[in-house]
Fold:
Amino acid sequence: TTTTTTTNDNGDDNGKTLLYQNKKCIVETESGEQFQSDFVICTVPLGVLQRDVICFHPSLSARKQSAIRAIGMGTENKVILRFAQKFWPNFKYIQCNDYRYRFLNYEPFGKKGTIVAHCAPPYAHDYENQTDEEIVETVCKVMQTMFRVKPEKMPKPVDFLVTRWLQDENSFGAYSYMKVGATYSDVRALSEPEFEAKTLFFAGEGCSISGAQCVHGAVMSGQEQACKILQIGNVEINADMALGKRVGMPAEAMREWMQCSKCSKWRKLPEFVFPDELEEKWECSFGGVWDERLEQLGCDAAEDDEDDE
Structure:
């Protein structure tokens, strides 16, 4: 259990009022160990937030709590099988008539003799009371039928792994999904910082719209929150140090400026337009492609300031 709270200089826990005085966070672990910081990025899976196993002081906003309830958390389990050699087709993705499973061939990804059976709800819930061996036996029988292998020639896996995400107390499911009634506004609310002082941030695949259910969605949402914290501290952000470089950065963090070679005024470039992509002798009127004001007035338009959209 982790508690996120705030204190004054004397260490007294007086709740919400003092949060805005020092803007400090304390994370307390289950063993009682405490960590103090200026900011916290909470990256626990949505399933953990839904179980209320983390105590937040002050409590999360009503908007945040509503988003946590609105978005669904599924159970996409996997049965990973490794055989001495491959006996299935070379396709990366393999479907079958058994609605419980779909298969991913790991050989093209460098994992020799390995195939993964994906099992989604409601079928993923059916095997919670079965042993790993029973589950593997069922999957192997499905594969035997799929690939027309005679029973006596069906190989046994040399190794296997069965995930049980719903039972994992560090996850309680895998992965988030848009439950009936949920909207992208709920996803945005889930990723918004908490408290007036903006000291508690949230990241993870459930906080991503374009990368939900995927590792890259989790990574990029984490980078986005890290960039927000750096911007609060007026720290220059180096995109070359980010995973994916420019692609992996939040758009607002990458907004750059261009100086007119004719009037020397500075213009704020739109998202994902960079100086090295423009002409060396760039002029204000060239910005008419994205700004009607520059198209009409050119260099006569007032110089942009930091707050201009």
User: Anything to note?
Assistant: The radius of gyration is 26 Å. Residues 5 and 57 are 5 Å apart (CA to CA). The chain has eight helices and 15 strands.
